[in-house]
Design goal:
Blueprint lengths: L3 E8 L6 H5 L5 E9 L6 E6 L2 E6 L8 E5 L4 E5 L10 E6 L6 E8 L4 E7 L5 E4 L8 E10 L2 E8 L4 E7 L6 E5 L14 E6 L2 E6 L1
């Protein structure tokens, strides 16, 4: 079987390397490396509490999705939902309450977005209602995990504005909230907006 090697490294802590940060001289320490179970020319990945979600950016619906433990180098494979298409994507999260790991599938078509959830250990995909997120268009490239919950930037076409959608990993419910006060809404904002997690806080960065 063809394989691709992955490497995980850690950027040294800010307080331990203050002098290097001031000189913009960051250092990385290799934690582990491992082989993925297949060749992935374009690999999409996300992490949740020490586990990695990996899947190739491929049109083949038979290509599996993998959950990998980079420390033990063990992995399991998940079949893709039957509705999978090349515009779809997967996200990974872990509930802080039940500690269950969940893979969230975002199915995209020209008409609408739909969601399914795979809880590790159950062996099946379950459709879930979008609820409050119904009618919004998800930007699958701009997402972040904060406190175990998923977040995306979404378009509100009715109000011609950008919102943020949160997915609660425990209740599997969606919520919509506005961007921070003072957020510029003119021009092509979406292409310059990034979501990230900074010290357990959801951050919106824009230029």
């Amino acid at each position: 079987m063809n394989q691709t090697q992955c490497m995980i490294f850690e950027i040294l802590d800010e307080e331990e390397e203050e002098a290097d940060l001031e000189s913009h001289d960051l250092h990385g320490i290799t934690l582990t490396d491992f082989d993925t179970p297949h060749t992935m020319k374009a690999t999409i990945g996300s992490a949740a509490d020490g586990l990695l979600l990996l899947y190739p950016n491929a049109d083949d619906p038979e290509t599996s999705v993998y959950i990998c433990n980079p420390v033990t180098r063990e992995y399991i494979s998940l079949c893709r939902p039957k509705e999978y298409n090349c515009w779809s994507c997967f996200q990974f999260c872990a509930s802080k309450v039940s500690e269950q790991y969940k893979v969230v599938y975002l199915g995209r078509t020209l008409e609408s977005d739909s969601f399914q959830v795979y809880t590790l250990g159950t062996g099946l995909w379950r459709p879930i209602e979008t609820g409050a997120a119904s009618g919004f268009k998800f930007n699958s490239n701009e997402r972040a995990v904060c406190n175990g919950n998923l977040h995306w930037i979404v378009d509100d076409f009715d109000q011609l504005s950008i919102r943020i959608c949160g997915f609660d990993a425990e209740t599997e419910c969606f919520s919509i909230f506005s961007a921070p006060q003072g957020f510029p809404m003119d021009g092509d904002v979406e292409s310059n907006v990034k979501l990230t997690n900074f010290r357990d806080c959801l951050c919106v960065c824009y230029t």
